[in-house]
Design goal:
By secondary structure, the chain is α/β, with parallel strands linked by helices. Helices cover 34% and strands 21% of the residues. It comes from Flavimaricola marinus.
């Protein structure tokens, strides 16, 4: 779906953003009838509270949306953006906002509030439209919103319509739209091309859902950036089958792939001066006579051996081959994104994107980017003393250490064994469990905006 700003109009309706403290100064500028209307409606500028002010003939002549008090603002994001779904039909322009209100945040939030997933059921887009506020980069915000919409659409699509082949098709459409090149290695060809872990995890799936590695390239000059996204299009858990309650959201287990594709759109649409590579191992972790087994010892692309102690820890296996390929290209900044561990959710919940960075300067840039883009992250440690936990007796690595402690950290340490030196890993959730302003329930991007904002510092752009 298209998320875009309205063209400027002489008839656009003024929209005010305010906190409770600033409400009197705004209302004092209205005529007595409008002031009486505000009082009669009990409008108090609470968080996301919205009101339209009518003229005597019933037209909307102004609107106000509240931010709530300081406590509400600390607890919420995109609070004013909810107005996009609450206001009546019309074209609005931002008339006034407190200094604390970020115009770019409001503008992006407004567009994201307009997102609807309509593949299987129609849903009306908001009737209200917004003229891009003065001082914001409208084209950049529209590119970010489009990338986020792509991520949400891919995650929200159920696995029967978003298997490895469909994920490949989505990547191909994106590549074509930006003039990127793309190659795909599929099925038994993965073995010939030395991607044994990707093949092993996906080989039990039906032939039309065969495993594959998607490799997209864009840009001919500038610093190099490699994005690696986990594309497990459905995860049964393999022979260590998940219980039903844990399998219900496994259509989102390709959320890492969806997020890097959304971020790739942002980068390409904005024409950033860099060389981008996107690697997506796309598989279905199915149950079948050819499924890999607990106790198997597998050999990855770079020769490291892995003892399989849980077939439900498959994401790190497919990422290992992709990261090994990335490492062959040198020490380009390499970022993996994956819905990898439940331990990350236990640690930080669904709203924060935990990430691991090998270098402090990279971590600092990402944290600053997250704050500027209202895309919250939390740095986790590559804690070297835990390395022993991923080293079993009969192989180089253990894909699922026993004990259940530090699950997100040990998974990240596992991935680091295959990655180049300049490495960042995001262990994301990719799902909004309850609707919030600019974030309906369902698939959601995490970390992409933070990375986009950080790229100038990360790559010297």
């Amino acid at each position: 779906m298209t998320l875009a700003f309205a063209a400027a109009s002489p008839d656009s309706i003024p929209l005010y953003i305010t906190d409770p403290e600033g409400l009197p100064s705004i209302s004092d500028g209205f005529d007595p009838a409008a002031q009486a209307w505000l009082k009669a409606q009990g409008f108090a500028a609470g968080p996301s509270e919205c009101i339209a002010l009518p003229s005597p003939d019933g037209r909307v002549v102004a609107a106000i949306v509240g931010l709530g008090d300081a406590k509400a603002q600390r607890r919420g994001r995109f609070l004013a953006a909810k107005a996009a779904s609450l206001l009546p039909k019309g074209i609005y322009h931002l008339a006034d906002a407190p200094a604390s209100a970020d115009r770019a945040e409001f503008a992006l939030g407004w567009l994201l509030e307009g997102y609807r997933f309509t593949r299987y059921k129609s849903a009306s887009a908001p009737a209200a439209e917004l003229v891009a506020p003065e001082g914001v980069d409208a084209a950049r915000i529209e590119a970010i919103a489009a990338g986020e919409a792509l991520t949400r659409d891919l995650i929200n699509t159920p696995s029967n319509d978003m298997g490895p082949a469909e994920l490949e098709a989505a990547a191909a459409t994106l590549a074509k739209s930006h003039g990127a090149s793309m190659t795909v290695t599929t099925g038994e060809d993965l073995l010939a091309a030395n991607f044994p872990l990707i093949h092993t995890v996906g080989r039990a799936a039906a032939p039309h859902r065969a495993p594959r590695l998607i490799d997209m390239r864009w840009g001919e000059a500038g610093p190099a950036l490699v994005l690696v996204g986990k594309g497990v299009c459905f995860d049964t858990g393999g022979l260590n089958i998940k219980p039903g309650a844990s399998m219900g959201l496994m259509k989102k287990d390709m959320g890492g792939a969806a997020t890097v594709l959304g971020l790739a759109h942002m980068i390409m649409a904005l024409g950033l001066k860099l060389r981008l590579r996107v690697l997506i191992p796309a598989v279905e972790n199915a149950i079948g006579s050819d499924a890999f087994r607990p106790g198997d010892v597998l050999t990855g692309r770079d020769g490291k051996t892995v003892e399989i102690n849980n077939t439900d820890a498959e994401g790190r296996l497919v990422l290992a081959d992709a990261l090994a390929l990335a490492a062959e290209g040198g020490d380009a900044l390499t970022v993996s994104m994956a819905t990898l561990t439940g331990a990350a959710r236990v640690a930080v919940g669904p709203d924060l994107a935990p990430f691991f960075a090998q270098h402090d300067a990279d971590a600092q840039a990402i944290v600053a980017g997250a704050e500027a883009s209202r895309d919250p992250v939390w740095r986790m440690p590559f804690h070297d003393p835990y390395e022993a936990m991923i080293e079993p007796g009969i192989a180089d690595l253990d894909n699922a250490p026993s004990g259940g402690m530090a699950g997100s950290i040990t998974a990240a340490l596992f991935l680091r064994r295959f990655a180049p030196d300049r490495y960042v890993h995001f262990d994301i959730y990719g799902w909004q469990p309850a609707a919030a302003p600019a974030r309906p329930k369902g698939g959601v991007g995490m970390g992409a905006r933070a990375l986009l904002e950080a790229l100038p510092d990360l790559l010297g752009l």
